[in-house]
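Tokens as discussed.
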């Protein structure tokens, strides 16, 4: 644990985790440098922005459900504080565009409905009740849902944010920070080596480079892997039905698909999951499956315009829990958030700030001290 005097912290990684940690450290009065060749890009830029610990819950991931729920509870205050930090000149929606309309989880055949029933039963046993709805009841809530939707669940507590608005707000909130837009090649106590042969020094290095973190410190090798996800961004044209007001998650022939509304009649459709190494090409098959499944759930999107396709790499661990803690004296890791990076940003940033400033760490997050404990926690 580090003392509370003036310090310089170098954050490696300019995605949602790195920027959130940097912002909280600046708010704590520290001098912060962010090292990333392209800040506010990568998986964070491609994400759907769902804050969905309940609808992401599956048997065996109870710790992740508790962690996600604790972070979700922090999101309203996190968003409000970020709006203030971004400044009045950023406009009336200066923060992350937090959407509180909730989430629907829907199925289009009996097998998919059985999967949702199993999820509802699992959540009920954990004391997290969700409401089962018929197809007709779902269409009363969201008229854009198509006749193929057979039934589903209402989860009003699972929310969403605009991931790109969030990244813009974090950049505005970090006006006092220094940005070094060059690739890092290695991290060691007090030093980040850069690809051009120079280095950046600080009292503490926070390694938050997502799927690339394992390439920068030997303690992480073999403990992280990239999981590819593709998305399609759509815009409702004047003649089309508007997007739903709620996030819609669906299971179509066993394939998950989500549809997350954005301001301006826009919709994010995602996300495929591939174990494809560091490949970020968008594939024809991935886009085809996303649009096929999304159109079955929301037939009106056939009239939408395609604005963008993109792919990102989620940093995944074997148990889907993030790696947060000191790898060695002066090197702190915050990565491995997988599909939950945006959801877990507030609690991760709070934990990193607490460890550096000597404040109480949120009890819901598992903190690791040193390489041996990182390994033990993941056995």
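Sequence:
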């Amino acid at each position: 644990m580090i003392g509370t005097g003036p310090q310089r912290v170098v954050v490696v990684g300019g995605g949602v985790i790195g920027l959130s940690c940097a912002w909280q450290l600046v708010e704590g009065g520290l001098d912060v440098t962010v090292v990333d060749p392209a800040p506010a890009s990568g998986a964070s830029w491609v994400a759907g922005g769902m804050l969905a610990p309940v609808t992401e819950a599956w048997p065996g991931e109870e710790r992740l459900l508790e962690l996600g729920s604790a972070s979700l509870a922090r999101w309203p205050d996190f968003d409000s504080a970020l709006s203030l930090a971004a400044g009045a000149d950023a406009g009336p929606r200066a923060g992350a565009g937090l959407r509180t309309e909730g989430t629907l989880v829907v199925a289009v055949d009996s097998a998919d409905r059985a999967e949702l029933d199993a999820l509802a039963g699992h959540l009920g046993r954990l004391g997290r009740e969700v409401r089962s709805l018929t197809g007709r009841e779902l269409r009363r809530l969201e008229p854009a849902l198509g006749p193929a939707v057979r039934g589903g669940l209402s989860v009003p507590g699972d929310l969403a944010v605009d991931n790109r608005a969030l990244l813009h707000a974090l950049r505005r909130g970090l006006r006092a920070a220094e940005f070094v837009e060059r690739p890092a090649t290695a991290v060691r106590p007090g030093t980040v080596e850069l690809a051009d042969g120079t280095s950046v020094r600080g009292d503490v290095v926070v390694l938050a480079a997502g799927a690339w973190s394992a390439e920068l410190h030997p303690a992480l090798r073999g403990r992280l892997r990239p999981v590819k996800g593709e998305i399609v961004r759509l815009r409702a044209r004047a003649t089309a039905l508007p997007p739903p007001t709620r996030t819609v998650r669906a299971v179509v022939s066993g394939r998950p698909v989500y549809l997350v509304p954005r301001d301006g009649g826009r919709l994010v459709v995602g996300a495929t999951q591939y174990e494809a190494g560091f490949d970020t090409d968008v594939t024809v098959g991935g886009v085809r499956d996303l649009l096929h499944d999304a159109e079955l759930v929301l037939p009106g999107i056939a009239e939408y315009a395609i604005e963008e396709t993109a792919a990102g790499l989620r940093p995944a661990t074997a148990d889907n829990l993030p790696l947060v803690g000191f790898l060695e004296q002066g090197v702190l890791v915050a990565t491995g958030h997988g599909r939950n990076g945006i959801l877990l940003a507030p609690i991760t940033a709070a934990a990193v700030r607490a460890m550096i400033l000597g404040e109480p760490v949120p009890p819901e997050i598992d903190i690791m001290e040193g390489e041996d404990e990182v390994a033990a926690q993941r056995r």
